[in-house]
Specification:
The chain is of the alpha/beta class. The protein has 25 helices and 18 strands. It folds into five domains: 110 residues, no CATH class; 140 residues, no CATH class; 121 residues, DNA primase, catalytic core, N-terminal domain (DNA primase DNAg catalytic core, N-terminal domain), CATH 3.90.980; 114 residues, 3-Layer(aba) Sandwich (Dna Topoisomerase Vi A Subunit, Chain: A, domain 2), CATH 3.40.1360.10; 92 residues, no CATH class. β12 and β13 form a beta hairpin.
């Protein structure tokens, strides 16, 4: 490849430097607004009002957007408006924000666009909003006591008392405040039944601020909430950096409110006539057409009868003893609805026919296929059967584990049917939904027995799910996002510690990189999965294996260095490793970049400034190799540009 001229390289460097300068200017503007909040020139309630409109872009951008256009109400990118059927009007100037990658970007307010009208979100009454919050509280394992006749006799720390005389708006305000405490990892539930007289200072500001944003999401009044001047809870001594306290408060409020608001969008209250649509985690793709209600009910009935048939046979074959030997006792088998498929070729088909199900229904449910003689034969034979469930808990498919040493695939899934799509469903998601609602961190394992092992052993820590035979997909993330705020909790991958496991991690990263929450990896002993650890050891072995996490980014960056740098003995190897790592680092959230640059610099002995330049180059639209290769020249290179070469046996291809 022909190297660009020094003039082109300098132009590229100047372009990157200008982008960085713009970002620094934007950060300076945001810092000034933070100072205005601390000094009272902008009230905390005014910022919350702005955050209710623009908080999805993060704390810094929630300051930058109104600083440039105070009247902005709904801002989106140029492309996002086009997808909504609206066009940015000629001559309009974009509102500059800082993108997730730390680059300057432009968004436009709806008043700067023209085109199709947007659908108005449904407006809730105070009673409907309170009902939504009560349903959310129930999903989080709380009991809302609003002057009930009968006393609550369960765990008092899970009781939220609302005075009977409170009207619906006041009750919703108090409940939102308490839910903010529940979702904060540092707070306990604070409910005395007599208001919040025991909640003071920054803690009360944090919970009331989250309540403000939640009420705004529901369209309920927020005028019952008032806030002291930030100087009272952030301090005034400059040595304690009070503006940093204001910024930390804002970021915490947005993060906690995002978790509550996300969960609220997935709840349909019985009082709400129009369900609020949950924003997709990614650009929406057309979904497969759902079967008509009558057809769906028929298939669900066939699958329910098949599941009953399988579960009644669990003790009649080898399955129950096999599972017990692996650490899954009878109670676990019953709780997870485990069954057993008999060896006979038509045992299930004949049973379902006797119950009145037609052959077409049995086939469409994915339970049978035509045999050599044309008659139906069971799809699952002589296997331990585990059910896949949909959001309502209905069985929509199965995965079967063969006997050790038997012929055929180790695991066999139901085929794609009108109800079951392997690339969109996660085993264990329905069963672990309550763990997710209570803050259990999503853990992705390989197989169904691994999910059962983790959920049975560490339910307070993880909510384990398994894609079962396919790589993690955007549809899987969408399914998880209905129960967990992945951009807050992130998730954990349980990986085999060998090369295959690392390769699987790299494939998963291409899908998971859209998340802003922490993505970690639990490296298991080579060739051992969670179910194996539970079988051969004990609960302690499994907890130990899953207790030591490393950021997935660390694993992937190290893999890039290893793959492209080899022994790192020669200059070319070290530079190649640093270049490859920089490309991956440029895809990380901005707050992770500095740490990864330092790690790569330490491993490769390439200066951190050079790696930083490569990261910046990787963010730009041009290929990294065309940006400024001159900046990669090592002092050991000769004036003529010749580079020391490794031996021929290590020749790069």
């Amino acid at each position: 490849m022909t190297a660009p001229s020094s003039g082109e390289a300098e132009q590229s460097v100047r372009r990157l430097e200008e982008q960085q300068r713009q970002v620094e200017v934007l950060r300076t503007v945001a810092d000034q607004v933070v100072a205005d909040i601390h000094q009272g020139r902008l009230s905390w309630a005014d910022w919350l009002q702005q955050a209710s409109r623009h908080g999805r872009y993060g704390f810094t951008n929630s300051l930058l957007i109104p600083a440039q256009r105070r009247t902005a109400t709904d801002v989106r990118s140029y492309d996002a408006w086009q997808k909504q059927g609206r066009q940015v009007q000629r001559g309009e100037t974009g509102i500059r924000i800082i993108s997730r990658r730390g680059k300057p970007a432009s968004v436009f307010d709806i008043e700067q666009t023209a085109g199709a009208a947007l659908d108005e979100p449904p407006r809730l009454t105070a009673a409907e909003g309170l009902e939504r919050l009560c349903l959310l509280a129930a999903k989080l394992g709380l009991y809302v006591d609003r002057g009930q006749r009968w006393p609550y006799l369960d765990r008092l720390e899970r009781r939220v008392a609302l005075a009977a005389e409170l009207d619906d708006v006041a009750a919703a305000t108090e409940l939102a405040h308490q839910l903010a405490h529940v979702l904060s990892t540092r707070d306990a539930l604070h409910s005395t039944g007599n208001g919040r007289t025991d909640c003071y200072g920054a803690r009360r500001v944090r919970a009331d601020s989250v309540a403000f944003l939640v009420l705004a999401e529901l369209g309920l009044p927020v005028d019952r909430l008032s806030f002291p001047p930030p100087a009272q809870w952030a301090g005034t001594d400059h040595r304690a950096n009070p503006t940093a306290a204001v910024r930390a408060m804002g970021e915490t409020v947005l993060r906690t409110a995002s978790g509550l608001r996300h969960r609220l969008r997935s709840i349909a209250s019985p009082l709400v006539t129009r369900q609020v649509e949950t924003p997709p985690l990614r650009t929406a793709r057309p979904k497969a057409t759902k079967p008509e209600t009558g057809r769906r009910d028929e298939l669900l009935a066939v699958l329910a009868d098949a599941h009953t048939f399988y579960t009644e046979l669990i003790t009649s074959g080898w399955g129950a003893d096999y599972l017990a030997a692996r650490g899954f006792d009878a109670d676990v088998q019953k709780r997870w609805g485990v069954g057993h498929a008999p060896r006979g070729p038509r045992a299930l088909v004949e049973h379902l026919r006797r119950l009145g199900h037609a052959d077409e229904q049995i086939m469409d449910a994915g339970l049978a296929r035509p045999g050599k003689d044309g008659d139906l034969v069971d799809l699952f034979r002589d296997r331990v059967l585990l059910p896949f469930r949909d959001e309502d808990g209905s069985v929509v498919g199965f995965i079967g584990r063969r006997r050790d040493g038997a012929r055929g695939p180790k695991y066999l899934n139901s085929p794609d049917t009108p109800l079951f799509h392997k690339k969109a469903i996660l085993y264990g998601l329905h069963e672990s939904r309550d763990h997710l609602a209570r803050g259990g961190r999503p853990l992705i394992v390989e197989g169904p027995l691994d999910a059962i092992a983790v959920n049975s052993t560490m339910p307070q820590t993880y909510a384990a799910v398994a894609p079962c035979g396919t790589a993690i997909t955007p549809d899987h993330l969408d399914a998880l996002a209905r129960y967990a705020d992945l951009n807050t909790t992130g998730l954990v991958l349980a990986l085999d510690g060998d090369d295959a496991g690392r390769a699987a991690a790299l494939r998963a990263w291409q899908t998971l990189r859209v998340l802003t929450g922490p993505i970690d990896a639990a490296l298991l002993p080579q060739g051992r999965d969670p179910a194996d650890l539970l079988t051969s050891g004990s609960r302690a072995h499994l907890e130990q294996a899953l207790g030591s996490l490393i950021p997935l980014a660390d694993l992937l960056v190290d893999e890039k260095i290893k793959r492209h740098g080899g022994t790192l003995e020669f200059v070319e190897q070290r530079l190649a490793a640093a270049r490859a790592a920089a490309g991956l680092i440029s895809q990380l959230p901005p707050d992770q970049i500095a740490r990864q640059v330092a790690r790569v610099a330490s491993r490769t002995q390439v200066e951190a400034a050079e790696i930083t330049a490569a990261v910046a180059a990787a963010i730009s639209p041009e290929p990294a190799s065309d940006i400024c290769p001159a900046r990669w020249k090592h002092p050991a290179m000769s004036a003529a540009g010749r580079r020391p070469s490794p031996p021929r046996r290590s020749r790069a291809k």
